[in-house]
Amino acid sequence: MSRKRILVVEDNEDNRRILLYRLRKIGDFDIVETENGAEAVAAVESNPPDLIFMDLKMPVMDGWEATRRIRALDAGRSIPIIALTAQAMAGDEQKALANGCNDYLAKPVVDPSLVREKIERLLGTATRH
Predict the structure, then answer these.
(1) N or C terminus: which one in the chain shows less Cβ crowding within 10 Å?
(2) Residue 129 falls inside a structural domain
(3) Which structural domain range is residue 15 located in?
(4) 6: how many CB neighbours lie within 10 A of its CB?
């Protein structure tokens, strides 16, 4: 079975490192990193990933707009997108789901079992434990 490609879209290097560490502990993925929504849209256009972790608040293009643009692409319609936000405000999860995201995680991502569960559910694959 081929390795799953995961796109991590996060402008904060510390948050990106934490998530990358969690992902590498969970499974053997091909991980692509981008720092803003514009880079994420370009990455999906050039080589669509199997799953996207999308920060919602970033410079250049935020995660809301990037998700909208990715969903407008033929290649981006069915890619699972997990929204990431540090300001876990009431209603953010519902807003993320209503705006095209498949799931939601608050940052920093500290619970590897939660990340594993979301990946397994959205990709339909088991990860190493």
Answers:
(1) N
(2) no
(3) 5-123
(4) 24
Q: Per residue of the chain (129 residues), give pLDDT as tens.
A: 578 999 999 999 998 999 999 999 888 899 999 999 999 999 999 999 999 999 998 889 999 999 999 999 999 999 999 999 876 666 777 888 888 999 998 887 778 888 999 999 999 866 655
What phi and psi values does residue 46 have, to the nearest 5 degrees? -85, -35
On whether the CB atoms of residues 48 and 75 are closer than 8 A, the answer is yes
Residue with tokens 């996207």: 52
Residue 40 lies in a domain: yes
Question: What's the whole-model pTM score?
Answer: 0.91
Taking a C-beta distance cutoff of 8 angstroms, is the pair 84, 107 a contact? yes
Total domains in the chain come to: 1
